[in-house]
Each structure stands twice: as C-alpha cells, then as structure tokens.
Design goal:
12 strands; binds NADP nicotinamide-adenine-dinucleotide phosphate; alpha/beta; six-stranded parallel β-sheet; 240 residues; Precorrin-6A reductase; EC 1.3.1.54
C-alpha cells in the first residue's frame, strides 16, 4: 500500500512508524513552518502542494492508495484540500485528529469560536498568557491595554500587540512549571486553541489549580469527506 500522511503532529509520526513497521510505503508531508521539525520514519516531503488541485495532481502522479490527514485539528485549509483531492481522485481519506479537550471540574473556560473573539475576551484582563502558536498572533495586535506573554516554538513574524514578551519554548510542559510561569508573570488568564492531547495539557491543570480562566478557541469543523479517528492504531483499523 502507498500511503500519503499529511503530518506535522505526533499522531502523524506514530502512524508513519506503524505503517512502515507493517511494510507499507509511506511518505509524510510537512508544511515547512517549523525550522527544526521532528521527522517521522519513512520518506518525507516538505512544502505546500499548491491547493486542492496541486494535491490532486500529486496523488495521481505518486499513485497514492490512501491519504491520512493527520494534521493539527486547526490546520483547516490542508484538511479541506485533502477532502477535495480525495473526492476528485476517489482516494480513501482518513482524518486522524487527537480528541478535543473537555472541560474538567474546577476549570473555568471561556469558549470562543475564533481568534478575534479570543482577542476581545483577552482585553478584559491586564496580563494574559497567549499559547496559540505564532501564525494567528496578529488577531491580538489591536489589544492595547493588555500585556501578553506569548509562548511559541519559533519567533513570530506577524504584527504583535504593543505590550508583549516572547517566550520561545517547545514543551512538553509540567503542571508545576506552568504554575510557576503563571504565578511569576502575574497571569490573569490564558488563551489556547482546543488542540487536545497530553503534550500541552498541563497549562489547563495549572490554570484550574490557580483559579484562572482559560479562553479556549474551539475547533473548526472537519470536512464531510473522510472517516474521523483519534489514534494511529484506529487509523490503521479504518483502512478500507
Ligand atoms: P493550514 O492553514 O491548513 O495550511 C495552509 C497551507 O499550508 C495549506 O494550504 C498547504 O499549502 C500547506 N500545508 C499545510 N499543512 C501541510 C502539510 N502537512 N503538507 C504540505 N503542505 C501543507 O495549516 P497550518 O495551520 O498553517 O499548519 C501547517 C502545518 O503545521 C500542518 O501540517 C499542521 O499539522 C502543523 N501544525 C499546525 C498547528 C496549528 O495550530 N495550526 C499546530 C501544530 C502543527 P498548499 O495549499 O499549497 O498545499
């Protein structure tokens, strides 16, 4: 079987390892955003395809039998491209997205559906920890009266709010480490996407223990095309 994995996540690397272990031909695709990405086993290609048409062409040229969309749940465009390209080529599509976080007892969530809404909610606080990656930070650029501690993996290259400090860090993070960060910076609220998974969950537990609210951006909808699974093993079980 020749599989294309749209990756950039731990789940995608887990899936590549399982498929290679079964003897399948696997090529993983990365967008090329992160300077020093963790690489999966098997072949890797890097860079965009040129929209759904480019991906359609690529699938045909490389005789791909199955496409796994194992991208981050907030990587909306590439999931849509995958749906369109698979519908056009008749290629089976499996979306592997880790489960969303669910609100736990003691947590205070302010649920929003866009970065603009998250920015509007942030403006109610003086000091906010912003943990949304670096691509969407410009949505917060107009928040003049809030100081942001921005934590991301690589340096941001977009417009930023006037009062900010940058903390470059990749995680995983511990609950005690997150509590120290929140406490020592006088953080009153944190902003996160509902990414799900264990690697960055500690901030939610730290916020709960310190009684600070979490402004949480809910996931964009998945395209109708394809089967949704939550683990690499389930992705293999879902193969046609
Ligand atoms: P996006 O908005 O859905 O994608 C923007 C464009 O980047 C796509 O149209 C596509 O270009 C290209 N692209 C995205 N993922 C690709 C992949 N795996 N392989 C080849 N091209 C890809 O995605 P994003 O939010 O910028 O995320 C980019 C990558 O970072 C994703 O692969 C995702 O898994 C990873 N990531 C994202 C987040 C997040 O919070 N968004 C967090 C962690 C990791 P073309 O249209 O030219 O094909």
């Amino acid at each position: 079987m020749r599989a294309l994995i749209l990756g950039g996540t731990r789940e995608a690397r887990d899936l590549a390892a399982l498929l290679v272990g079964r003897g399948d031909y696997v090529i993983s695709s990365l967008a090329g955003r992160v300077k020093d990405p963790a690489l999966p086993v098997g072949e890797v290609r890097i860079g965009g395809f040129g929209g759904p048409e480019g991906l359609t062409e690529w699938i045909r040229e490389h005789s791909i039998d199955v496409l796994f969309d194992a991208t981050h749940p907030f990587a909306e465009k590439i999931s849509q491209s995958a749906a369109t390209a698979c519908a056009t080529t008749g290629t089976p599509l499996i979306h592997l997205h880790r489960p969303a976080w669910e609100k736990q007892p003691g947590e205070t969530w302010i649920e929003v559906s866009s970065m603009d809404e998250a920015a509007a909610e942030s403006a109610r606080f003086s000091t906010v920890l912003l943990t949304i990656g670096r691509q969407k930070l410009a949505h917060f650029a107009g928040c003049d009266s809030t100081r942001f501690l921005i934590r991301c993996v690589d340096p941001p290259e977009v417009a930023l709010p006037p009062q900010h400090d940058i903390l470059l860090s990749r995680g995983p993070f511990t609950i005690d480490g997150e509590k120290d960060l929140i406490h020592s910076n006088g953080i009153e609220a944190l902003v996160t996407k509902n990414s799900g998974g264990d690697l960055t969950h500690a901030k939610l537990e730290a916020a709960r223990d310190l009684h600070i609210p979490v402004i949480i951006v809910q996931r964009p909808p998945l395209p109708a095309e394809g089967t949704l699974v939550h683990t690499a093993a389930d992705a293999i079980a879902a193969l046609p």
